Amino acid sequence: MVFSSTIFLCGFLPLVVFLYYGIPAKFRNGFLLLASLFFYGWGEPVYLSIMAFSTVFDYVNGRLIEHYKEKQRRGAAKGILVLSIVGNIGILCFFKYTDFLIASINRFTGGDVSLLNLALPIGISFYTFQTMSYTIDVYRGNVKAQHNIISFGMYVTLFPQLIAGPIVRYTQISKEVEKRGTSFDICAQGIQRFIIGLAKKVLLANQIGVLWAQIQTVQENEMSVALAWLGAASYTLQIYFDFSGYSDMAIGLGKIFGFHFPENFSYPYESQSITEFWRRWHMTLGTWFREYLYIPLGGNRKGRVRHIINLFVVWFLTGLWHGAGWNFILWGLYYFIFLVAEKLFLLKFLDKTHPIVRHVYTMFVVISGWVIFSNEKMQEIFKFWKGMFGAGVPLINDLAIYELLSYGILLAVLIIGTTSIPKRLGEKLRNQLGDWVIAVYTVVLLLLCMAFLISGTYNPFLYFRF
C-alpha cells in the first residue's frame, strides 16, 4: 500500500484516524501497531515475519543491555550491542546484497553460481537503521530501554515513516511513544503537510517522471547535448519531489497521530557547495551516519589521513546503503571525491567566488551525480555523460526541441518549487488574507491529486527500492 493510492486515501487512512481517536489513549499504541502491520502486510505479508523478528530481537537486546549496565557488567552489555549490530546488518545484507555479491563474483571470475532471487523487503534499510540506533542509544545511556513490547513494536512499524523514512531515532520520539497529545490545529497542520507532499508526488514528480522515462530510453545516436541535460535535469527534479513529497506526507501523518518527526529536506537545490547540499538532502540519513559511524570512527579528530579514510568509509557505505549495484557504490565515491576536495582546498576557492558561480558548480555536480544514481548499467551512464559533455553529439536536435516545448512550463514550475519561494509566498498570503486561503489551496490540491490518481496507474515512490 502506498500513500499516493486511492485505497490508502479513501479507505485505510480515514478509517485508521477515525478509530484511533475513538478509542481510549491507553490502547492507541496497540492499535497503531496493528494498523501498521496491516499496512505493511498489504503488499508483502511474507515479510512480516522479518519485521517481527527485528522488533523482538532488538526489544530483547535493549532490555538486556539495560540490565547488564545496571549490574555494571559493561562487557556483557557491549557484547549484546555487538550481537544487535551484527544481527541487524546480517539480515539487511542477506536480503539486499546476497544476489549482488553472487552476480559480482560470477562476473569477475566467470563462475555460474545461481542467484537466490531474493525479493527486497520494502523499507528494510530504514527500519534496520532505526532499530540499530535504538540499541546503540540504550547502550550509550541516551535513552532508557522500552519495557513495553507493544510500544516498541509500534515505534518500529509505525506506518507513516516505515517505508521510506525519515529515519526516526527512538531518542527523538521516546516521550511521544509513552504519551502524546494533539489538537485541532496540530492535526490540521498535519493534514495540510500531507496534502502538500501528496501534490509533490502526484502532480509534480509523476509528471516529470514521464519525461525522464522517455529520454532514458533514447538511443545514443538520437542523443544531443540539450536532450541529455534535459533528461538528467528531469530525474534531478523527479527524485527531489518524489522523496521530499514522501517525507512531507510522513511528517504530516505523524502530526495527525501526535508525533513530531524530524525534517528530511531543507531546499537542497539552493546549496552553494556539495558540503552544504548534504546538510540539506536526506538529513536524517546524514545524521545517522554522522552519529553512529563517522564520529565513532574518529571523525576529523585524528589527523588528515584518518579523516579522509573515515569519509571514504562513510561514503562507500552511503552509496551501498542506497542499493545493491555498482552504480550506487560509484555514486557514493563520486561524492566522497568532491567532499574531500572541498575540505582540502575547494571551499576556500569557492568562498572567493560569486554565489551564482557556487550554485552553478553545486548543481552541475549534483545533476551529473544523479546520472550515476539513476542508471544501473555503466553504458547508460556514459551515454548520458557523453551527451551532456558534447562527445560526438549535436548541441540540440528535433527531439530536444519537442520535449522542451512540451515540458517547458512544467520544468519552470518545478525549478521554482525546489526553492523557498512558494513557502515565503504562502506565508505572505496567509498573513495578508488569513488561514482560509491556505485551506482553499489545500482542498484544491487534494481534488487535483485525486483526479490524477483516479485516472492514473500504480505510482510507487522511488525510494521504495532502496
Automatic annotation (TrEMBL):
InterPro entries: Ac/AlaTfrase_AlgI/DltB, AlgI, MB_O-acyltransferase, MBOAT_fam. It is a multi-pass membrane protein. It is found in: Cell membrane. Keywords: Acyltransferase, Cell membrane, Membrane, Transferase, Transmembrane, Transmembrane helix. The keyword Transmembrane helix applies. The chain crosses the membrane at residues 6-23, 30-56, 76-97, 109-129, 149-170, 305-322, 356-373, 399-421, 433-454. One of its GO terms (molecular function) is acyltransferase activity. Its main location: membrane. The keyword Transit peptide does not apply. GO terms for cellular component: plasma membrane. GO terms for biological process: alginic acid biosynthetic process. Belongs to the membrane-bound acyltransferase family. This is Alginate O-acetyltransferase complex protein AlgI.
